[in-house]
């Protein structure tokens, strides 16, 4: 049964569609670490909580509340090993992973919103070029708006180089 679980995880990780997104992998790591954390909490703390009767479900609940930084306080590590070998890593991984997931989701939402606004913007009428054949300021602005971020960076870099070349050429004359 455990081998079947591992095969499913391996197939899940190797799915080509997941190569484009890190979120499923991070969630998988979060679940796997949560399972290990709950098992570790139960292993180190079951004797310290013997009067209350600590179960694996209670340990999983502790892990979930700790990783999400809620920490109700109904369960907590009482032993030194439970605190430092399980509790501290669970807190750190929970904070880091939740922060990462929130950042990725926010970035995806912002990116999709930007794409939607970019795709739905009605095309503007192209201004006529100047009489000498050079594009007008309006046409250059429209061309600039159609570029993506990395293309804009390249254009700015090229513009700086050309400006520096013009300045150095004028100084020689």
Short description:
The chain is mostly helical.
DSSP strand content? under 5%
Number of H/I helices? 6
Report the structural category: mainly alpha
Annotated CATH architecture of the largest domain: Orthogonal Bundle
Multimer state: single chain
Low-confidence stretches: none
Q: What is the CATH topology classification name of the largest domain?
A: Helix Hairpins
CATH C-level label of the largest domain:
Mainly Alpha
Helix content: over 70%
Question: What is the total tally of β strands?
Answer: 0
What is the terminal separation in angstroms?
82 Å
Output the helix-strand order: HHHHHH
The biggest beta sheet is recorded as:
none
Can you offer a commentary on this structure?
Helix 2 packs across helix 3. It contains 6 helices and no strands. Helix content is 71%, strand content 0%. The mean pLDDT is 78. It has helices at residues 2-13, 23-45, 56-67, 80-120, 137-146, 149-172. It has 2 domains: 11-121, Helix Hairpins, CATH 1.10.287.70; 126-173, no CATH class. It has 173 residues and is mainly alpha-helical. The protein is elongated and about 90 Å long. The protein starts with a helix and ends with a helix.
């Amino acid at each position: 049964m455990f081998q079947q679980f591992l095969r499913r995880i391996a197939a899940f990780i190797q799915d080509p569609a997941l190569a484009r997104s890190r979120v499923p992998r991070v969630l998988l790591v979060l679940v796997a670490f949560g399972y290990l954390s709950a098992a570790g909490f139960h292993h180190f703390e079951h004797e310290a909580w013997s009067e209350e009767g600590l179960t694996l479900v209670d340990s999983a609940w502790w892990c979930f509340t700790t990783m999400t930084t809620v920490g109700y306080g109904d369960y907590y590590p009482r032993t030194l090993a439970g605190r430092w070998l399980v509790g501290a890593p669970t807190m750190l991984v929970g904070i880091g992973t939740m922060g990462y997931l929130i950042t990725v989701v926010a970035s995806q939402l912002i990116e999709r919103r930007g794409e939607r606004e970019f795709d739905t913007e009605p095309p503007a009428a192209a201004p006529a070029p100047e009489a000498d054949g050079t594009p007008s300021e309006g046409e250059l602005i429209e061309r600039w708006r159609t570029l993506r971020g990395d293309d804009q960076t390249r254009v700015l870099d090229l513009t700086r180089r050309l400006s520096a070349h013009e300045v150095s050429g004028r100084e020689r004359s």
